[in-house]
Amino acid sequence: MGKFFIIIGVGFGTVIALAVMVLLVLGAIGPDISIYAGRQIPKNYMKAIRSLNLLEGDEQIRYFYSDALYDIKEGLYFVTGKNLVVYSNEWEEPATVIPYNQIKSLDVQYDDSFFNDSMVFVTTYSGVEVNFPLSSEKGLDKKFVEVIQENINVESMVSVDAN
Fold first, then answer.
1. What would the 3-class secondary structure string for 35-92 be?
2. Residue 105 in contact with residue 122, Cβ under 8 Å?
3. How far apart are CA 6 and CA 12, in angstroms?
4. What does the domain layout of the chain look like in residue ranges?
5. Parallel, antiparallel or unpaired: strands 129-134 and 118-124
6. End-to-end CA distance of the chain
7. Cα 90–76–35 angle (5° rounding)?
């Protein structure tokens, strides 16, 4: 009976060790879990963004976030001096580029929890509705949203839920 428990223990330990290694590998190769300020975006991310034709000419990214587990092309969100850009390979139309003057309403539900992202909800004058997550780590979700708020015309349309 003692051998049985040893075999079970070794098997269980092996499964746990494999799970930890998988998580470490995913953490090492996947995107950071926080928002990047423009100049801190890794070169390979910029290359992916440019390959998706999400930037115009000399447009500069102010803040960037990806909620992807492995490849940022799964889901990425950023703000520039001109546009809010949201991209998800799960959407029928993966890329949505929204000039700030087209934003009708902005609603933000901040979440300071490590496990949950803040959520941003945007509606345009043409009726396009998008929502996307932002990591709350280091308070950069607020900085990301501030860029949008600074650039939209109708401050009264901005709604913030501090939770």
1. CEEHHHCCHHHHHHHHHCCCCCCCCCEEEEEECCCCCHHHEEEEEECCEEEEEECCCC
2. yes
3. 10
4. 1-30, 33-161
5. antiparallel
6. 54
7. 145
pLDDT digit string (tens) for 105-131? 999 999 988 788 999 999 999 999 999
DSSP letter (8 states) at residue 120: E
Give the model confidence (pLDDT) of 26-41 as tens digits: 444 445 578 999 899 9
pLDDT in tens, the chain (163 residues): 677 667 776 666 566 656 555 544 444 444 557 899 989 999 999 999 999 999 988 899 999 999 988 889 999 999 999 999 999 999 999 999 999 999 999 999 999 887 889 999 999 999 999 999 999 988 899 999 999 999 986 444 455 565 5
Beta strands 103-109 and 158-161: pairing type?
Answer: parallel
The domain 33-161 having CATH identifier 3.40.190.10: the answer here is no
**Residue whose C-alpha is closest to residue 140's, from 66, 72, 63:** 63
CA distances from 6 to 19, 78, 89 (A): 20, 52, 46
Alpha carbon distance 163, 75 (integer Å): 25
